[in-house]
Amino acid sequence: MLAEIKGLNEECGVFGIWGHPEAAQITYYGLHSLQHRGQEGTGIVVTDGDKLKGVKGEGLVTEVFSQDAIQELKGTSAIGHVRYATAGGGGYENVQPLLFQSQNGGLALCHNGNLTNATALKYQLEAQGSIFQTSSDTEVLAHLIKRGGVSSHKERVKNALSMVKGAYAFLIMTENEMMVAVDPNGLRPLSLGKIGDAYVIASETCAFDIVGAEFVRDVLPGELLVIDDNGFRSEMFAMASNISMCAMEYVYFSRPDSNINGINVHTARKNLGKHLAVEVPIEADVVTGVPDSSISVAIGYAEATGIPYEMGLIKNKYVGRTFIQPSQSLREQGVKMKLSPVRGVVEGKRVVMVDDSIVRGTTSRRIVTMLKEAGATEVHVIISSPPIKNPCFYGIDTSTKEELIASDRSVEEIREIIGADTLTFLSPKGMIDAIGREEEGETRGLCLACFTGKYPTEIYPSTLHPYEKV
């Protein structure tokens, strides 16, 4: 039995600003622009130079933050977070930023990614007397920082970062400074911008456009930025190695108006479509993309093949994230509520349906069925990434092979399950070339672990003994 409808979900997005009188309000807008990266919880912590104060809750940005809540967050600097629960699960206590108070002052932090050795570190820390308040892997870093001895705060942070493994983009804030760090492999995106004299940090550059910030540069793998009222200072806490930006940031997760390492996401997706046109020549009448991430790919495929692009599928933007699906029949109805075929476009037509990935297969099967019920004579499914055969341990909610339809099935077997007339995935080389990163090497600085099983870091899944590596 295939799992119920569920696509890929990224763990979260982070936003920070230092030195602006409306820090909380700007962070609210920044988080709203990153809402696609997490819909289960959100929070903001501010500093007024004297103390830290936070508001957080389960739900969307607009649900958690009323105007009154924003007005209570008085301060000139802030960090914020939107979360999709993967490591540690859901619950209010796991909503970030996490805020801790101590005799030496406050500490707030938030995190995009996943620490692969969090379980092992928790065992060590608990053996030394630590008591964890959450099940989030993010809290591990806070304990490591606080147990760093009498050295400076910066040195404690650097030492703590040297102990964690995996994918991370961290924002760490005290009453008088903000620290920003990206893992040495650069698995998750993070960028630096400015609004006047204020510094801004965001998971995606689309947030800069929303808040009126100017892009300065990307935060480098292994880099630590220290931002305070005197500006920002940069140093490397680790040597960058085996650069491996998550390929799915380009394929699926990021907004099309974002740039990742100088590459526009919409342009990369159009190129994916053009490479598909070379690899997958199909005789058809219309091309349509599954909203939202595949529309750019479908446009690129249509331009390269000359087959007209049409809006054959419509996404209902007013379906709530908490839609309850207690039975199979209602789950089926839930898909129709979220996505509808346009009969006037697809009826009597041979349709090329473009999607970014197939994870569990359930959604693809239902969309193909809907298109055929709407009168499509043929449905040819093309996917702008290779088959996802391996779990991700870096912050995407595919942690076991059993969840993945391609882990033990051929393309033909998947085609039969989803009911398509043909099914083709983009080759790994086609995807790498289409994205077009400038790094050298076979993967051009992309993490392809979910496709190839070659992980750029050591893996310590929680299902194993905490000190055992994959």
How does this model look, in words?
The protein is an alpha+beta fold and 470 residues long. It contains 16 helices and 23 strands. The strands form 6 sheets. The protein has a 7-stranded antiparallel beta sheet. It has a 6-stranded antiparallel beta sheet with strand order 5-6-7-8-12-13. It has a 4-stranded parallel beta sheet with strand order 17-20-21-22, with helices on both faces. Strand 20, helix 13 (362-373) and strand 21 form a beta-alpha-beta unit. It is globular, with a radius of gyration of 22 Å.
Short description:
It is built from 16 helices and 23 strands. By secondary structure, the chain is an alpha+beta fold.
* Beta strands, count: 23
The strands making up the biggest β-sheet line up spatially as 3-2-4-1-10-9-11
Coarse structural class: alpha+beta
Overall shape: it is globular
| Unreliable segments of 5+ consecutive residues | 1-6, 321-328, 463-470
- Mean of residue pLDDT values: 90
Percent in helix = 25-40%
For the biggest sheet, the summary is: 7 strands, antiparallel
Distance between the termini: 28 Å
Radius of gyration: 22 Å
Report the portion of residues in β strands: 25-35%
Number of helices: 16
